[in-house]
Amino acid sequence: MRKYIAEFLGTFILVFVGTGSVVYSSATAQSPLTIGLAFGLALMVAIYAFGHISGGHFNPAVSLSMAIQKRLSWLDFAWYVVAQLLGAIVASAAVLGGVASYLKTSTVTQALSGQKMSVKQFIDLAGMGQTNFTDGQGISAFAFEFGLTFLFVLVISIVTKLANVPAPVAIGLFLAVLIIVALPITGGAFNPARALSPAIFVQGKALTNVWVYIVADLLGGVLAAFVANFFNSKSEAPATQD
């Protein structure tokens, strides 16, 4: 049970901090750098806090890859995904719960020139940090998510087996860089739970298109598993416990 709670909390931290950085900066000039770092640093902290308990996946694509690599049982995989989805959904609900207070801040008041805006109006306008892509760009979005998720999970699979590498730092910084690259094209999910949770609250096109992220990210994790097995079979580096 400790493992599943750790996955719930770690995913909550990742999604709350990451999407919160998007939502609560909507009234100012948003920077891809700060958004990428918010996700990356949140993941790094979550791995340091809970990685020794559950392995620090916080992502169904990572858990699927680890199960294929036989570094996670299939039973644990199923419960990890449940915990990750619940953690992400609760995180999005918490971000939504903070919108009313955000609308009362001086930053938003000045941006609206004193006009009132309801929570629903804000969500319809600014969103919930959901990932999405331009109409007609589904194939490009799928390819981007698949390719970058593959790289992300592959790096995770390799660095977590190297005793001399600070895996949480490498993983967090790599996620930040990937998000900065993908932000204008897909929003940079690389995580089905992170993609699904805000889309549930926003609905509309974000929810209609979320299947692209779920399928592409999971397939990226599958490919990463086989490539990681190839690379790790050639390495004599000591493995860490997941």
Description of the molecule:
The protein has twelve helices and no strands. With 242 residues, the protein is mostly helical. The longest helix has 24 residues. The C terminus is likely disordered.
Sum this structure up briefly.
This protein is an all-alpha fold and 242 residues long. It is built from twelve helices and no strands.
| Count of structural domains | 1
The amount of helix comes to over 70%
Gap from first CA to last CA: 15 Å
Write down the CATH class: Mainly Alpha
Care to count the β-strands? 0
Tally of contiguous helical segments: 12
What is the name of the CATH topology?
Glycerol uptake facilitator protein
> How would you name the CATH homologous superfamily?
Glycerol uptake facilitator protein
Beta-strand percent range: under 5%
Give, in order, the helices and strands. Answer: HHHHHHHHHHHH
Rg from alpha-carbon coordinates: 18 Å
The best one-word shape is: globular
**Main structural class:** mainly alpha
InterPro entries: Aquaporin-like, Aquaporin_transptr, MIP, MIP_CS
Protein name: Glycerol uptake facilitator protein
Membrane topology: Multi-pass membrane protein
Subcellular location: Cell membrane
Write the layout of secondary structure elements.
Layout: H1 2-23, H2 32-54, H3 60-68, H4 74-97, H5 99-102, H6 106-111, H7 119-126, H8 138-159, H9 167-182, H10 192-202, H11 204-208, H12 210-233
InterPro entries: Aquaporin-like (IPR023271), Aquaporin_transptr (IPR034294), MIP (IPR000425), MIP_CS (IPR022357)
Keywords: Cell membrane, Membrane, Transmembrane, Transmembrane helix, Transport
Pfam family, one: MIP
